[in-house]
Every structure is written in structure tokens, then in C-alpha cells.
Task: structure prediction
Amino acid sequence: MSVPAPGELSSRLELSASAFRANVAAFRGVAGPSRRVGAVLKGNAYGHGFSEMLPLAHAEADWLYAITPNEGLAVRAFEAAQSAARRDVLVIGAVSAGEVVALAEAGVDVVVADRSFEAAVPLLRAKGLKASVHVHVDTGLGREGFTTTQLAAGDADGLAAARDVLEVKGVLSHFANTEDVTEQSYASTQLDAFGRAFEVLSRRIQVAPTTSRHFAASAAALVLPPSRFDVVRVGISLYGLWPSTETRLSSKVVLGELPTLHPVLSWRCPSQVVKWLPAGSYVGYGCTWRCGADTRVAVLPVGYWDGYPRLASGKAHVLVNGRRCPVLGRVMMNHLIVDVTHAVTNEAPLVATLLGRDGDESLSAETLAGWAQTIHYELVTRLGAHLPRRVVE
Ligand SMILES: *Cc1c(COP(=O)(O)O)cnc(C)c1O
Result:
């Protein structure tokens, strides 16, 4: 069963193509001309919308990183429909042996992160297919990837014996602690482990010295130059968001000058109704808000179902006509009630900005996430997939 599409009176996301292009350009500047810039499209393109962001990312980035096999295949379908040139595409998430075959057929690269890759070998041979793979090394995140101990024990050696069907095109790893700190000592231990792992792989499965290495996500690409290797895998910052305040501070120190990141996303909502509530009126479930004076409220048809966090109740504001308007009472499943007494002069329909710029004010994903005691990564990826999305210049 599919989710019914929202009607016209629903909140919507605007995606700025020029902001995205500027962010890619900023990373090209940071990475330098010898390195390639890859765009991470996981989490429904960080909630921005996979199908809306794909044409932009495809036009701007050298590599595309998808999390699911279907997204990898969707890139190829997009290229076929547009008669566009093929980009390098890597599925960084889990894939079954059957999916390795389907992706090899489509020319989409996959990650080999543990011995389960061996199950795909006979299937590829039976079909006469060759898969391009990237060996994921767990250098200290404790997530997917061969640990250095596993590599030394020969867990990846099957790659040498399967050279007829598995071509090792890359070696990658992922950092555990680059965003939360301003010193990168743990990241350095991961870099050392990566170097050792690459040596082991060169020896045991004869990985070519030219095999592409990629390690850095947004934060490391910005603040840890030795992590940049051949390709940087940039997620959050291509959408115009700093990974963290610490990353921003460190970037200033490491790069000298802060690159400007432009938030790609704005979230706006037309009002369902604007009306006066007399002094003493209660607002919302639990009657947690009571109007101290006559209050002009706007009821907005947007709520936690759409990804507006309920934990922001009692703290959040939205923007109307460039003014901050407090969210009154609790965030509901499909509604927000905001105080627009001073933001408008009548009860005509209005448009509220939940994220983005309105006049001299702007509201960032970091701010809304902070009100909800979470991080902007979670906030944006939870924006409802059902919300209408529109790419603007
Ligand atoms: C999420 C992810 C990235 C991108 O991280 P950002 O901090 O969003 O830039 C890169 N590589 C891997 C393996 C990831 O899981």
C-alpha cells in the first residue's frame, strides 16, 4: 500500500540547485584538482529526496554513493532515461549475493566487507559476470569491514582466488570520531590502521598500488588533509550543513579560511487557518499552553508525521514575514499552532518557514535539531518521504 500524496495545503521542501552546486565547488576547492568528489545519497539523500537530488548530484559529482541496491540501480535507470553518461556508482550498504549479481549486470560497484562475498562468486561465474568491488576495512568504527586481524587471518584472501569475477577497484574505511572533537588523535590511529591494511591487501591479494583509496566523509575532508586520498565521500556538507560546530572551528584553523556552505533545503508550510483566540484560551493537546492575551494564531498542517520533531514542543519557532513566531503547546501529528499576532496584520492565508531563510531571519536544521535534542543528520533524514519537493534555482 502506498502513502496517499498530500493535498495542496501541505508543507513542502524547496531544494536549491545553485546551493548544491556551490557546495560541490567548495569541496573541489578543498580537495584540490587531483582528487575526485563523491556525493553520498543515503537516507533519501539526507531527507532532501533521492529522486530530486539525483539529477543534481549526477551532474556535479564524480562518484555517487547509494546505500541500497535499488538506489544504485535507480542511478542507471536515470542515466538510461536521460541518455546521460555513466557515473561511477558504489552501493556502500549491505548487499546479498543475488544483489551483487544484479548490480554487476548494471555496472554498479559493491562493497566487500566480510566473507559473505564468497557466496556471490559461483553466481557471478555461472552468469559470466565480473563485479567491481571496494574492500571496506574496519579501522576502528566497529561497524562493517574487515578488521586488521581478519585481514591478517586471510578473511579477504578469497578475493585473489576469485579474480576472474571480482575486480578490486577500491579500498575504503570510515571514521568514528572526526566530528565530535577538535583534535584528531583517534582519526590518526585509524589512518595508521588503514595504511597497514592496504599493505596487507597489497601483499595477500595483490591489490594494485593504483587502486583507489577513499576514507574521508565531510568532516575529515575538511579538517584532516592526509585522509583525502583519491576520492572524498561527502554527505551532509554537500547539502550545505556543517557536520558539527567542532568541524567548523577546526576547518577555520586547518583551511585558514572557512568555505561557505549553502543549505540546500527550505521547508515551508501554508496556513490551514489564521484566527484569534481570546485571552485565557488553551492551545493543543494536554492544554500545556494558555494564551495570556488575545492571540492571533496560525494553524499549520504539518506535524511529527512529516518529520517536525515533537520534542521541539515548547521551544521551537517558525518564521512568518521574516519574524520569529513561537510554536504554542505541543507539536501534533499533523498540526502546529503558531503565534502570529505580530507577524501579520490580518487573518489572510500565510506561509510559514520551518527551515530556511525568510527575510533577515533564517532557521537552520542545527537549531531545530537542537530544540529536539538530536542532531541535524537525524532531523533531515526524518523529513517525510511523502512531502512534495521542488527543485528551484
Ligand atoms: C554517511 C557516510 C558518509 C558521509 O558522511 P557525512 O558526514 O554525511 O559526510 C561517507 N561514508 C560512509 C561510509 C558513510 O556511511
About this structure: The CA atoms of residues 7 and 388 lie 9 Å apart.
